[in-house]
Amino acid sequence: MYKGETPLISIITLNYNQADITCAFLESTRSLRYPNYEILVCDMASEVDPTAQINAGNYPHTRVLRSKKNLGFAGGNNWGMRQSNGEFFFIVNNDTEATPDLLNKLIRPFYDRNDVGVTCPKIKYYSNPNIIQYAGFNPMNVYTGRTTSIGLMEEDRGQHDQSRPTSAAHGCAMMVKKEILERVGMFAEKFFLYYEEWDWSARIVRANYKIWYTADAEIFHKESLTVGKTNPIKVYYHTRNRILYMRRNSNPFQFTVFAMVFAVFVIPKTTATFFVKKEFLQLRYFMKGIIWNLRSTSHSAI
After folding, report:
1. Exposed/middle/buried for residue 247 (C-beta within 10 Å: 0-12, 13-18, 19+)
2. Phi/psi of residue 98, each to 5°?
3. N or C: which end of the chain has fewer CB atoms below 10 A?
């Protein structure tokens, strides 16, 4: 099925003004037991070139690629995949810590089942290593454009130790076989940031592939357990891309219901919340995300 028993895995991680965080991730990869991998650190036009700092760490199998502009999560990972050599691509956040058998366990389902297109590990919080962030996703609600992560904020007591198909991959850590790129394509770069993995997952599932939650593979994510003040850019892309996702992945009836729910409930509630909290910049970016969809096509070249 693949060249040799240990095909090349290309680990792709993005860096944007976070060289120290990226180096901490690279330190964790020293423990990887899988023998055949390369690491591509794709720098998204950071203010300071991280190449010297990363090269000074002498991390195995690692090279730094510098983009002239920030291509976002979708475009940056596509850019990295185009320059990689692997038969598998492990797309992973730089604010994670790899475990020694991560690659070995993520690649196994591809041999067990021909219909597996993507595998994802159990994701747990680095600061609270027994608390789950992701053990698969529940299906996307086709009328609200929202979903929930299975196991989120639960203590890991073994309740999610059964590997299984899941509704979507998590952009924090996902292994993809090269065949997916050839048959389905890459991330839709129109998303730039947020919802791009859901759009890609929907296209992958429509192509009759499984997205596989691999319960015995683990990675630790340094995302905080508590969310601070809402970032306006995050508000913008979440709003914009929630609507964009529905435009691209729902039928006319579903989108009509979604639009009604969004207009009648989401807009008034969100507006009132930001107004009461005096988060007027966030409100502006929320409206900006809506308006973008009125002016832009849903088509993405990739």
Report:
1. middle
2. -75, 150
3. N
Please provide residue 147's backbone torsions phi and psi, each rounded to the nearest 5 degrees: -145, 180
What pLDDT does 227 receive? 41
pLDDT value for 246: 98
The two tokens of residue 145 are: 């454009």
Task: State how far the Cα of 28 lies from the Cα of 59, in Å rounded to an integer.
Answer: 10
CB-CB contact of 118 with 176 (8 Å) = yes
How far apart are alpha carbons 273 and 110 in whole angstroms? 45
Query: 10-43: b or e for each residue (b if 16 or more CB lie within 10 Å)?
Result: bbbbbbbebbebbbbbbebbeebebeebbbbbbb
> Number of helices and strands (H, E) in the chain?
10, 10
Half-sphere exposure at residue 182, Cβ-oriented, CA atoms within 13 angstroms: 6
Which conformational region is residue 253 in: left (phi greater than 0), alpha (psi within -120 to 50 degrees), or beta? Answer: alpha
What is the spatial distance between Cα 42 and Cα 63, in angstroms, rounded to a whole number? Answer: 9
**pLDDT, tens digit, 9 for 90 and up, residues 199-251:** 999 999 999 999 999 999 999 999 854 444 579 999 999 999 999 999 999 99
For range 45-49, the mean pLDDT: 96
Task: Encode pLDDT of 4-46 as tens digits.
Answer: 689 999 999 999 999 999 999 999 999 999 999 999 999 999 9
